[in-house]
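pasting for the record
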Amino acid sequence: MSIEQEQRWITGEEFGRENRRLIDAGVPDEAPEFQALFDRVQARDDYLYERYGKRYLDSHDGQWIAISTDGETIIRKTAGEVLSESRRRFGPGNASIRKLAAFPGHTFPHR
């Protein structure tokens, strides 16, 4: 997996607008347009975790991390705590949120 950024990362606001546009247009959930939208978020989140998050794996194992598109991090003990602080500081949908564990749990996207 390449962690090089090839495009400008999608923001939470952009995701929300495109998601709403697809829903309003009657596009089925399993359509390629939705898959492409979720893939953009997944690519962003994977990059942010590889670049900024993995370094905390040993020191904060089992905790949750939010990483902004600028690389700013928030680490908390629970998903709820990190999600709340992330929304407040970065805005909704503007961070990669994962569990710091051998297999990082994802909170988004749900497929």
